[in-house]
Amino acid sequence: MNINEYYHLQAEKTTLESLLKQIPEVNVIDRIGLETRKKEVEDLIASVSAPTREPIRASLTFRGKPTVGSHGIFAEFGAKAINAFADAVAAIGASQASSLGTRGAIPNREEFQLLITGTALGSFGFELEEAPKDAMLFPKESLIESAIEQTKRIMKASLGTDDDLTEAISEADPRAVETLRSFFKTIADHEAVCALDFKGDVFRFADVGQVRRSEGRLSKDNIHEDDKIFNGYFLGVLPNHRNFEFKVIGTEEVILGKVGADIEDANQINQIVGKQAQIKVHTKQVGTGRVRYELSHYSENSD
Fold first, then answer.
1. DSSP code of 249?
2. Cys-Cys crosslink for 280: which of 147, 169, 295, 297, Cβ 3.0 to 4.6 Å?
3. What residues form DSSP beta bridges with 174?
4. What are the distances in angstroms from CA 80 to CA 89, 185, 189, 257?
5. Is there a contact between 93 and 144 (Cβ–Cβ < 8 Å)?
6. Closest-CA residue to 70 (of 14, 123, 34)
7. Which among 11, 7, 10, 34 is positioned nearest to 21, based on CA atoms?
8. pLDDT tens-digit readout, 219-229
């Protein structure tokens, strides 16, 4: 049973109860058909689990040339902007679980579908809601929630320091970052700004100049990524937080970073602490910010 069928049954049960209240108890013949159907509906509802939580909601509003106060928004811009935002949320959400690749469909795109459920007042915009899944009611954990949370985090960091932005995008796939940059470009090209209200916390751009700067800071020219190999030895690993320290031979440099998802058991690294090793790391740096390291491979042999 999907969520629509569940709510349809709930509505039918309410209607049947209302009709039965209008028919006296002594009119047994008139009531019997409605009571039979009410029992069938109640049995169907009881056979599935009730929704365990409310759907995730957010509102995205716009100001600027494409809007007419709180009255309306130009349809062409509204469609482009909301599509670009939905793509960014889906890509950022999907990249939290797997690599997106450089092209093709976003993996598990259906897990990050958003519904437009209304218009947001104040500035003009849209009320957004997590789309229900066909096969089940809302599960206990929401992928949309973490996707929107991370999207908002990157939006905020795009107005912060290089270190802030490096940290915010450190685990995001380059293609996901590019989709958010495209959203910024869409609204800046139309001389608009946006505000994202999620879980009571509102992020907003003050003017189009801020949007343009954020767009530029997420460009490939400003985000430097590379794969590097170092020889040295591990100083230690925190397996739960998946943080490592590695001292490079021949220098006093100590690399601090995260153990990547390709290494399943981070605690195994502690068995070679102090021994010579070779590591492969993926580096990421925004502008002149601090370099972030992600460990993708290690071995005891330095050759």
1. T
2. 297
3. none
4. 14, 11, 11, 38
5. yes
6. 123
7. 34
8. 999 999 999 99
- Burial (CB < 10 A; 0-12, 13-18, 19+), residue 204, is middle
Q: What is the C-alpha separation between 190 and 184, in angstroms, rounded?
A: 10
Type of residue found at 229: I
Beta bridge partners of 283: 226, 293
Report d(CA 142, CA 219) in Å as an integer: 29
Residues contacting 169, CB < 8 A, separation 6+: 154, 157, 177, 218, 223, 284, 286
For the chain, the distance separating the N- and C-terminal CA atoms, rounded to the nearest angstrom, is 58
Q: Which residues are bridge partners to 256 per DSSP?
A: 245
Q: Which residue's structure tokens are 């290089």?
A: 162
- Residues 27-75 have pLDDT tens digits of 888 888 899 999 999 988 888 766 667 788 999 999 999 998 888 899 9
With 0.90 as the threshold, say if the pTM is over it. Answer: no
Reported as type and span, the H/E element at residue 41 is: helix 28-46
Whether 226 contacts 138, CB under 8 Å: no
Distance CA 6, CA 219 (A): 45
Count CB-CB contacts under 10 A for residue 253: 11
Give counts: helices (H), strands (E), the chain: 7, 12
Is the sign of the CA dihedral 6, 7, 11, 17 positive or negative?
positive
Taken as a whole, the chain contains a residue count of 303
Rg over alpha carbons for the chain, rounded to the nearest Å, is 26
Query: The tokens of 8 are what?
Result: 């349809």
C-alpha closest to that of 277 among 227, 230, 233, 237: 233
Sign of CA dihedral 264, 245, 167, 176: negative
Contact status, residue 33 vs residue 26, Cβ threshold 8 Å: no
